[in-house]
Amino acid sequence: MAITTTSSSLSSLSSLSLNSSPHHSLLPFTISFPKAPKPISLFLSSPRPTTPIPIPNAEPPHIETTFFSTDDPEYDAVFDPPEPPEGFVPPPSFDDEPLETEEQIAKAYEELYGPAYSGVSVLGNDVYVMDSKVRKLGAFGKVKKEKIRDGFEERVVEVRRVTKVVKGGKQLHFRVIVVVGDKRGCVGVGVGKAKEVIDGVQKAAVNARRNIVTVPMTKYLTFPHRSEGDYGAAKVMLRPASPGTGVIAGGSVRIVLEMAGVENALGKQLGSKNALNNARATVVAVQKMRQFREVALDRGIPMEELWK
């Protein structure tokens, strides 16, 4: 009796949990697998939806598309432009305009491409701006650069041979001291070293243009007051002079004052005879000077009060 009850219960459980009939989906190119057996649960649960799985590398379904055109291919469209407004004046034709003059053509060309190489500028540009960049061949096929035309004059103060001892022997170079100035109150001292004197002068000139200072002067082209400058072991003393005195100085001090445009001054080198240190000491002494208007502005008094 017990065995019969057990077998009947097992058959009833198998009928509840197993589902041997598969269900196929009617969608194209997809297939749904049979549902898994549902376990017996005491809680109510909604059935899981069947998700179709796409088959890879399957051909897409053929969709028939038909486009209907209502346009007649033999229809000729008529262009109907809008009427111009009242008072409309058509612009003149390009052929009816007057011809451009040569000056107008030159101005337009210079606005687009810059000044021409002929040395003429219609718009007032600097025609020598490219001279420093033009490279020419000099003697022995070496590259030679033209001088920079910026209003500064150059004066070579000293050329000294410098020997450097290295492992393979000695290397000979030239150290050049150059003073540049516009003789209107601007002056600079520079140093350059190269294997040739010409290259050393060019390097020194570029270095001097990077160290331009302004020299304060009165209307008589002299210093406003006394000043002294030190650089290393060199000491330079500068004094103003009356008109007609000239520049009474020697060595590199005289060259610096002349390139600055000073015509009446007294200078004295004290201590060292080194040309470079004396030139730089002169620049230091010049930088210590101040104009009368600067002192009067700092004190808050008129310039006439300074001489009382």
**Cα radius of gyration in angstroms:** 49 Å
Uncertain runs are 13-27
Q: Which sheet architecture does the biggest sheet show?
A: 4 strands, antiparallel
Structural class: alpha+beta
Strands of the largest sheet, in order across it? 5-6-7-8
Gross geometry: elongated
What is the succession of H and E elements?
HEEHEEEEEHEEEEHEHH
The total count of strands amounts to: 12
In terms of DSSP E residues, the strand content is 15-25%
Question: How far is the N terminus from the C terminus?
Answer: 146 Å
Tell me roughly what share of residues is in helical segments: 10-25%
Rounded mean pLDDT is 79
How many alpha or pi helices?
6
Descriptive overview:
Helices cover 23% and strands 23% of the residues. It contains six helices and twelve strands. The strands form four sheets. It has a four-stranded antiparallel β-sheet with strand order 5-6-7-8. A four-stranded mixed β-sheet has the order 9-10-12-11.
From the structure above, extract its key features.
single chain, 308 residues, alpha+beta, four-stranded antiparallel β-sheet, four-stranded mixed β-sheet, 12 strands, elongated
